[in-house]
């Protein structure tokens, strides 16, 4: 497989700029069972590139076919996402006006369950059969498949065109964006809206969020990249909302060209991206230098804490955390264990570094002195939950945007 892209997967411009080669990484959600600890995991080069024509940050898609048939990430593990999707469901239900809402990458059904509670007609599409069963238990119908033009045709025949197609933190997993968009174009009603919610690449650069890139997160989008991509399929960006979730995200609304005048927010965000230098190679070179410095600083801080005889654990076992652990070489010699609220990960080991993952109850049992927050995008929630830990003098080590010890 090619470990670099030779054209941008959004705007198709040639030769995306390589600025942060991070070496070989296993798939960030390929957690390891105890019986597999001695085995060598498959790993692939994580070469981060930027398109200097549209600002898309991207890595080559090297994940094996059918990898997402069994998946371990669920949004339900974070209270923040319950609140976020509850409010988002109101937006989507209003846009649908009684028509069909299709959620691509519906996961465990958290968003569509909220839509159903508002009386919406819904259907999820997701390749992960294990998560589809969870969604079904919540009253959410899932069509188990990868989304492509063939799936779009099947859904349209069975349910008719979709008034709303939505994808939340799934679009950044798609290797062949043009194939995906061909499916959207076919399924979307003439007066329908396609809503994409993803982390915003502008914030990735601003806050040093290099760990948002991993083997499954193959794209980090600028608004310009979505605008140029949509144009291939007669879809136009007509509105955008800025979101704080996941370290800074955007919610982008696309409609058939000419059916709705774009809001001022679209032009404002596009100008902000230009002003931030998202089409300049120097911007990405400086970012790579900052990440290198962060890695050295974090290694020094962890070495000092362990040198003091302190017990250090990691809070969260998110995919992004595995990029950080593997790139900076942080293993069980630095972190005794990880904790996570997702029971699907308990008893497993982190990919690559093979740090054991335990239930959050392990904090009270093992009494670590410091928790390194790998799920930094939920730090406020984590801190609010860990009052007993802080009451006994526990501290948090937040690695990004700069390594910081928080009492």
Looking at this protein, list some descriptive labels.
17 strands, globular, 13 helices, 407 residues, six-stranded mixed sheet, alpha/beta, Rossmann fold
How would you sum up this structure in a few lines?
It is built from 13 helices and 17 strands. The protein is of the alpha/beta class and 407 residues long.
Q: How does this structure look, described?
A:
It is a single chain. The protein has helices at residues 79-96, 110-117, 129-137, 149-159, 177-187, 201-206, 223-231, 264-275, 281-307, 319-328, 362-366, 379-385, 387-391; strands at residues 17-25, 44-50, 57-58, 100-104, 121-126, 142-144, 162-168, 188-199, 219-220, 235-243, 249-256, 312-315, 338-339, 357-358, 370-373, 395-398, 404-406. It is of the alpha/beta class. It folds into 2 domains: 68-281, Rossmann fold (3-Layer(aba) Sandwich); 304-406, Rossmann fold. The strands form 3 sheets. Strands 6-5-4-7-8-11-10 form a 7-stranded mixed beta sheet, with helices on both faces. Strands 14-13-12-15-16-17 form a 6-stranded mixed beta sheet. Strands 1-2-3-9 form a 4-stranded antiparallel beta sheet. Strand 16 and strand 17 (404-406) form a beta hairpin. Helix 1 (79-96) crosses helix 2 and helix 4 packs parallel to helix 5 (177-187).
